[in-house]
Amino acid sequence: MPIIDFKEIPLSSSAGSARDQFELFAREFLQVQGFRIVEAPDRGPDQGRDLIVEELRTGVAGETRIRWLVSCKHKAHSGRSVSPEDEPDIHDRVRTHSCSGFSGFYSTIQSSGLSAKLNASGLPFEVMVYDPELIERQLLQSKEGISLIERFFPDSWKRWRGENPGVAEIFETLPELRCSHCDTNLLTDTSRGTVVLWKKYPREGAGDTVQHVYCCCKGDCDRILKQQFGQKGLIDGWKGLSDLTIPTDYLRWQMSIVNGLRRGDSYSDDAFENLKEILVNIYPLVARNLTEPEKERIRSLGVLPWGLGGYG
Ligand SMILES: [Zn+2]
Fold first, then answer.
1. How far is the CA of 278 from the centre of ligand 1 (A)?
2. How much distance in Å is there from the Cα of 191 to the middle of ligand 1?
């Protein structure tokens, strides 16, 4: 199922008006891929536009510059494939612009006819075709690519992001929760991990006394740690890490901890430190990125003393 709906980019604008969006997108995309934009396009037949870009190849014999003629065809709105008729006189166009490569940049697939034409043996130039699938794959590989999705395909991005929540950029480094037995970072696959709490048998009218809190892998690591921590008079409880990364469940767990503290629950020093570490490290998985003004605000709060409303 593709992530990007290329129809979000409007059809090429009429002659004489501002540069069309698809061509602009192609320029930005190729720049992210490492090409240098040499020449803005001229308008070819059937509203197709050509760009010239340069690729720097480093090999054993030194550096080589390859000039590519890039032909942009935006047919996502009609859904029709790019046909040989859409790409007339390729050889002439490549030669006229002193290029040694031809690249199709298409928002629909190429027809079998065009594919045969471009893959014919003995062509005096290199060929590279960016079709929608390849464009999407490349975009998802870098931060700059993802920013282009956000910018040119905001609805597609919103849809995809909703189904694929990432880790919010809140701390300098990525959050980690390590298994107390084997040291695996459980946040790379939360379905493998669990949070285990050991508390004393509850007494009538008294709050819980939590002795140990840790994270571990489900299965073997959990069993081994159980033997180590399961002393007489303690009972264990657990919560799956994948549940705790659901924002509602995370909040519910936090509320139950806060309510417990008011009821008189107590924690050993170790258990309390570990609990805080777990809450802090799961937080980026249920939160959003900070905006630039928020980052500034956090920095300024960091230098203010506590009494003046800061964190210091
Ligand atoms: Zn483990």
1. 16
2. 12
- Output the six-digit token pair for 49: 């536009």
| Residue 85 token pair | 């008729």
- Strand 193-200 to 49-59 pairing: unpaired
Taking alpha carbons only, the member of 28, 38, 26, 223 closest to residue 128 is 26
Q: Which two tokens stand for residue 75?
A: 């047919």
Q: Ion ligand 1 — residues with CB under 5 Å?
A: 179, 181-182, 184, 217, 221
Nearest Cα to Cα of residue 109 among 90, 127, 132: 132
- Distance from the alpha carbon of residue 215 to the mean position of ligand 1, in angstroms: 9
* Angstrom distance (rounded) from CA 274 to CA 195: 10
Find the 223 Cα to ligand 1 centroid distance in Å: 10
- Render pLDDT for 188-241 as a digit per residue (tens, 0 to 9): 889 999 999 999 988 887 889 999 999 999 999 999 999 999 988 999 999 999
Chain-wide mean pLDDT for the chain?
89
Query: E strands, the chain, where?
Result: 36-39, 49-59, 62-73, 101-106, 126-130, 193-200, 209-217, 234-240, 266-267
Q: Which amino acid is present at 297?
A: R
**For residues 55 and 66, what is the distance between their CA atoms, to the nearest angstrom?**
5
Q: How far apart are CA 50 and CA 72, in angstroms?
A: 6
Residue type, 142: S
